[in-house]
Backbone:
């Protein structure tokens, strides 16, 4: 068996990471590789780390070049995927790495993205309750944002188990710069980012805020409100999310830990680390793993969960491939057996 | 006028930073430079960036070598300063960069440090209400911890103005690795820390937790409880603190901002940035400045304050020199006019 | 088919990289994982990126634990492998990632390593003339040093083709810090290495100097003398080697390029990049590829070759696995199809 | 005494570094601060590390805004300074941080820069033989390039003493990314440069090549030909230059060392380190120092010199201020007493 798979947005970081994973996927044959302004160029000039595909030439992103594949990955600016997907066969599995089809609430979409809502697709985070089932057989999938992937994996077990209070949830994430994309911007120059950290999108204005609240509220069965602050760290890849919530009074510490342990005990890519070991982003770099650890701070009455992922792998392309595997009934781990690249 | 100043612990990062600043201080003559295991070595071999003092030889740390100076800086492991200070003249200004004399509550000291409390000295963070006055004429000063410096500067104005609630205060800090000192440890190797982030001391166990609570509680006039999570960032210097607290219902956004603006309007080293500009650690590297910005997240009902300092300068040696200047009635900014080193 | 493979030195960087590659090798079953001072610990605590092997426990390194496998990788301090190898069956493939069996000249060994020469094993750099053949069926293999791998790949084609002069060969390499190992040393702390570069082993004193000269001289058919300067770069992995030699007068530029193009045209892991594209270490990170480019500087009469590898992969563990594949008659690329991890 | 000093190009890295130094210069009053596309903006928004000048507003770069100062620093793209300088009074000290007036040979200028030669100004590297004298009283000064500063400091003493041969000189430099400027370019994004190294301008094509040859040839009294390869290192600041040349046969090792020791023994900013200590870029970061060390490789018959500078300080703005001090008869070290910022 060999699936034909097309990747659009192949000159960017998400597209490059999709190709990195797909190049080693045992059941995949990489078909069209497309881009916009870089169409006509060799992939090897744009993504020199993709040795196996170096001589492939990028085609123009269009329904024609993407059509006729079993699977199409869209790694496009938001707003671009709905129209393109509509032109592709409903039998084609279309996986959108962009934001367009993640939010269920049109008002939230419009408030944060300023355009008309394009509808909601099944959400490619199979570790959330009920999500794996919803992905089976799906032909349209929305890949979660990188921050929401880490934040939801961090807190959903506690909310799903009814152990956390829905107010005063605080999430602070540090992300590598690849999350900001490959477009040339002066504040993202190496000279600016090396050796320093800075926050951005503070005060609830980051677009991933409603996406995180959507996932937590669904798990909690009530509206959860968060304070989310993203920060930019001097590293190319990786997210460290520190998530903390007030624990319902009277909850025993062991019950807290059990909630996470039982939620993830059978998951192939999410690991609650042994007690005493704290996660480090380097341990998951280039891999589809999420590592977590939690502590109960009895003095403050809060649980603190640390979750690390690679923003481009589990946070984007790896989650997308994992979702593809589930949708098509393949081994969920196919093409995703890479260990972390450390040190 | 020329003060004779001795620095102990000169082979470490705090000692080196003290010497870097003192070497350019217009009113200071650097006297004894002392260390423990490195006594007898050239400073230039241990701290090659201190060109002006390269040929000085380190002496043994003792009351004899440190005695007879106007000012003595102690940059020693905790537990070592009380005994040494007792041997120095009460007229000598002794400034302890270690933790021994920061905490007022002996129980908190014993719980977090596991030894007998050595007593409390005036706390060298002059920007806190009443602290500058307490430092004037002091002959014993405790330099604040680096995390507490950033956290207290971030939140004290809101608590002092009565605008913040004392529960569910959450502080997440990212620190450069120099905060962990110069002792060789495998988990602090460049290979381990470059390109990644990790948390540590999670769940309220970090020793700076009671120090932060002490300062916030004093400002609030009631007990403040915090959740504090430090993380290690891939940079040598700098702290980015994200501090967030619930705003008392009904507080207007402008009143919030006014609290910080009026607290720091006349401060020489703490700057509330113009609205829209977020702080970056690189802007304060090597300088004694703290830059802040805040946002009111009405949806979450919380204020989020970002504060950046250089952990070795404002967070340790710069704050120490600033305190020295105040204690001795010098210009508070003497020797501290360095701009940030960027990019 | 499934080979049983043991890895010693599994708590270090070379051992960890071997396990990272072997964990994904389709024909390998990882057997004993051994260490010295870390014996008895979980691999997951020491190498948290090796998710697939996290629960394996390290055994003591000995002929007993390593015996009975088809292949044994030794990643030990130099001096330790000869004795251990002598206790293993001559039918076992023993691959030494250390230096002990690389040098042919006992005098060079003794001058640079200060101990008795342990003998020479086939040298695991199959891209050198005649080396692939020598590895077929071998049961003892010496893995080249990381600097020699990059320097020999850079210059051997020119010497083998008789185009370069044997004097005034200059090689300057920048290496990531993992090349210095995982032992805790103060000068390798993240605080010391981040944001800076420094040379070491200058003036011909680095132990890889005779190893590079050995390989170049064999290719040239005459004694080649080099000036080799290694430098430490603020990155965890990767080597950029700049190698330059005087071109024999009258050599046409195209003949120069042809020498490299024909040497590597059929190689699976060494790529001469298209003209105009210069290699970057990030394009090969975590992969077994070596990327090269060359320029003829007519004004200076010299060729300059840039070669990048990952010091831990092609420079150590990847080269070792490639050699194993050749020795055992497997597909040379088995287990080595990883692309680079970028950005 | 207080000199009025104007700085153009103030939004870039060279302009920012000039202002960082001038803000602490005891004899300087910063006058007009000018830029092109950023005119009208607050300096604090563009160079947030320059706290002392944060509220200054950038003016348009023109002869009008720059006129009427004692000193004008030009930090402009090449080609822009000659016209502007012609409009400024011949009594004004004009210091050009750009390339326009460095090269003496019009043919070399035209070959490497592709435009008409603008003439030659005194070259602001006072440590070269005769240069300090030429700078005294000068009113037009060309600041050397950053690579030439490090390469000339590394090799000139040997050539001036007649100890080195003029062929097969090889220079390999690793530079921080600030040398490439602040313009947004995708290949300079943090995601691209962090964690990796790459060469550029290989084969003698970099524009600093003729500038280095000019300086070496003048010192040697004969034409020196070099192979120069610049590489980009993952750090914001700093240059490590490895320079190597063939030693004339029969030269004793001590004579070699003496050449450098006597050349720099009285220099305030260039230090030949004690034997056994190798230079590190971090020791000079933010300072005007150049640190050097050399080794004689008898086997290869070559001397290897390692030289480190901060490309923005000694390599640009610091050298410019030092030249200003000399030209105006001030203390040469005024405003340049900053130590390195380490760790």
Residues:
């Amino acid at each position: 068996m060999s699936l034909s798979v097309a990747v659009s947005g192949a000159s960017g970081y998400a597209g490059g990471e999709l190709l990195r994973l797909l190049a080693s996927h045992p059941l995949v044959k990489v078909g069209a590789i497309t881009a916009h302004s870089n169409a006509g160029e060799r992939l090897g000039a744009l993504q020199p780390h993709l040795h196996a595909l170096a001589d492939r030439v990028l085609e123009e992103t269009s329904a024609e070049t993407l059509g006729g594949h079993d699977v199409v990955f869209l790694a496009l600016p938001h707003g671009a995927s709905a129209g393109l997907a509509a032109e592709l066969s409903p039998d084609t599995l279309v996986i959108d790495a962009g934001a367009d089809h993640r939010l269920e609430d049109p008002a939230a979409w419009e408030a944060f993205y300023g355009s008309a809502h394009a509808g909601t697709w099944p959400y490619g985070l199979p570790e959330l309750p009920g999500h794996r089932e919803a992905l089976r057989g799906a032909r349209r999938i929305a890949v979660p944002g990188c921050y929401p992937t880490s934040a939801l994996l961090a807190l959903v077990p506690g909310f799903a188990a009814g152990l956390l209070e829905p107010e005063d949830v605080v999430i602070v994430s540090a992300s590598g710069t690849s999350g900001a994309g490959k477009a040339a911007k002066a504040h993202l120059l190496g000279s600016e980012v090396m050796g320093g950290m800075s926050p951005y999108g503070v005060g609830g204005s980051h677009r991933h805020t409603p996406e995180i609240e959507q996932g937590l509220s669904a798990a909690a069965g009530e509206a959860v409100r968060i304070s989310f602050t993203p920060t930019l760290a001097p590293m190319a890849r990786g997210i460290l999310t520190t998530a903390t919530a007030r624990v319902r009074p009277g909850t025993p510490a062991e019950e807290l830990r059990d909630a996470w342990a039982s939620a993830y005990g059978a998951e192939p890519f999410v690991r609650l680390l042994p007690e005493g070991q704290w996660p480090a982003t380097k341990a998951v770099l280039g891999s589809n793993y999420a590592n977590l650890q939690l502590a109960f701070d009895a003095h403050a009455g809060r649980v603190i969960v640390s979750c690390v992922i690679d923003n481009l792998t589990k946070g984007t392309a790896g989650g997308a491939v994992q979702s593809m595997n589930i949708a098509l009934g393949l081994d969920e781990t196919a093409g995703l057996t890479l260990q972390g690249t450390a040190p």
In short: Chain B has two domains: 3-144+316-328, 147-309. The mean pLDDT of chain B is 97.
